[in-house]
Amino acid sequence: MVALTQDELLAEFETMTLIQLSEFVKAFEEKFDVTAAAAVAVAGPAGPAAVADAPEEKDEFDVVLTGAGDKKIQVIKVVRELTSLGLKEAKDLVDGAPKPVLEKVNKEAADKAKEALEGAGAAVEVK
Question: How far apart are CA 83 and CA 77, in angstroms?
Answer without folding.
Answer: 10
